[in-house]
Amino acid sequence: MTAVEVIGELFAGPGARDYLGEPVTIGEHMLQAGALAEAAGAEGPLVAAALLHDIGHLRRESTDTRHGEAGARWLSQWFGEAVTEPVRLHVAAKRYLCAVDAGYFGLLSAESVRTLSAQGGPMSAAEAAAFEALPHARDAMAVRRWDDQAKDPAVTPPRFAHFAPLLEALVRP
């Protein structure tokens, strides 16, 4: 099987139908995030990162605190850092945005507020400064904002097949 077929099976599997405390399934959530990135005109790797940001949940091998890292590690067998680093950092981006953007916390869903505590809460000033210095911090923040918006039960996202050509083009030889 190709990398995209393996990933596609996760989107089609039972894990994608879990809710994780949100009003949409995890599969719908991830597809909505990819569609939001695409609609914003993001470059291909960033669209892929938005689409795949919660792949660690689909693989069921990580907790709320480690799903970004586990997903990025797994994806790194096929994709470069432009895809994997925003996936790895999207949880840290939530913590960062809670620390530096006074209105951001109010945008979080109840489930995101609940998991924030387990994920370490808002960053300290030193943690925020270190996060800002990371090469993919800005992309991680973009993925995080799409993540927060991608929980609308009234939205029907495109199917995984819509994104397959993009992912195929990004897979490393």
Mean pLDDT, rounded to whole units? 93
Low-confidence stretches: none
The count of DSSP E runs of length 2 or more, i.e. the number of strands, is 0
Compressed to H and E, one letter per element, the order equals HHHHHHHHHH
The radius of gyration computed from the alpha-carbon positions, rounded to a whole number of angstroms, is 15 Å
Characterization of this structure:
- There is one protein chain.
- Helix 2 (26-39) crosses helix 9 (137-149), helix 3 packs across helix 9 and helix 3 (44-52) packs across helix 10.
- The protein has helices spanning 3-12, 26-39, 44-52, 55-58, 67-75, 81-100, 110-118, 125-132, 137-149, 160-170.
- It is mainly alpha-helical.
- The protein has 10 helices and no strands.
Which features does this protein show?
single chain; 173 residues; mainly alpha; 62% helix; globular
How does the SSE layout of this entry go?
Blueprint: H1 3-12, H2 26-39, H3 44-52, H4 55-58, H5 67-75, H6 81-100, H7 110-118, H8 125-132, H9 137-149, H10 160-170
Helix pairs in contact: 1-10, 2-3, 2-9, 3-6, 3-9, 3-10, 5-6, 6-8, 6-9
Give a brief description.
With 173 residues, the protein is mostly helical. It is built from 10 helices and no strands.
